[in-house]
Design goal:
There is one protein chain. A seven-stranded mixed sheet has the order 3-2-4-5-1-6-7. The protein is built from eight helices and seven strands; from the N terminus they run βαβααβαβαααβαββ. The protein starts with 14 loop residues before the first strand and ends in a 19-residue tail after the last strand. It is of the alpha/beta class. Helix content is 31%, strand content 21%. It has a single domain, classed as Rossmann fold, CATH 3.40.50.300.
């Protein structure tokens, strides 16, 4: 996820988050970087709990990926059951962990928790899921993993966190970004999106980011 100044905002082999309100373009941010990676010939994994293949692929095409690049470099899956503990899916999950990806996206954490049977307010369950799913994806194939999640509807007290247990921030090993709309985005419109750094465990992004906003300690 390179910027125009040559700096990068995702870490290979670590887990990141794009957190935002509904229609804040957080999934679009992940899809845009997926497009850049597969167009550059890098293989990507997209685990989709929120949308469907037709919607995701149509966006990748609009963002500039070719049908051939998508077919060759994108592994898309929309799980209906927990692939870690559901016996019939163990082999496929194991194969996913053996593949090498430049980037892996888990889109729709709230919906993922429903599939995995995880209580979103239970820190222990959330931490366990973070270790056995996104962290596994990052450590085994070495992908830059991005989880896409919602924030609370109320801006008051939202801080740097996604909705639910605070453990969602603790299982991240890379950077967490709040995705905010500055100018509305839509078909035929030119909008603006801000990424605000809420967490940066390796510490390479904060030094090249903007000033800290005191209300939520994001940059």
């Amino acid at each position: 996820m390179s910027r125009t100044d040559g700096r990068h905002t995702l870490y290979r082999g670590l887990v990141h988050a794009f957190n935002g309100e509904s229609e804040s373009c957080k999934s679009m941010m992940a899809q845009f970087e997926t497009t850049r990676q597969i167009s550059a010939g890098h293989r990507c994994r997209y685990i989709d709990f929120e949308s469907d293949a037709a919607s995701v692929i149509s966006r990748l095409l609009m963002m500039g990926a070719s049908a051939a690049e998508i077919s060759e470099n994108l592994d898309y899956i929309r799980p209906d059951v927990d692939p870690v503990t559901f016996t019939d899916e163990n082999a496929e999950w194991g194969q996913i962990l053996q593949n090498e990806y430049a980037m892996a996206v888990i889109d729709g954490v709230t919906e993922a928790f429903a599939v995995y049977g995880v209580k979103s307010i239970d820190n222990d369950e959330v931490s366990a899921w973070g270790r056995r799913v996104p962290r596994k994806l990052a450590s085994r194939p070495g992908a830059a993993v991005v989880v896409v999640d919602h924030v609370t509807k109320s801006a008051e007290g939202r801080g740097r966190f996604a909705i639910g247990a605070q453990a969602k921030l603790s299982y991240l090993t890379g950077a967490a970004y709040m995705v905010e709309i500055l100018v509305p985005v839509g078909v035929g419109m030119v909008g603006q999106i801000a990424l605000r750094v809420g967490k940066d465990r390796p510490g390479q992004v904060r030094p090249v980011s903007g000033e800290c906003r005191k209300s939520d300690r994001t940059q």
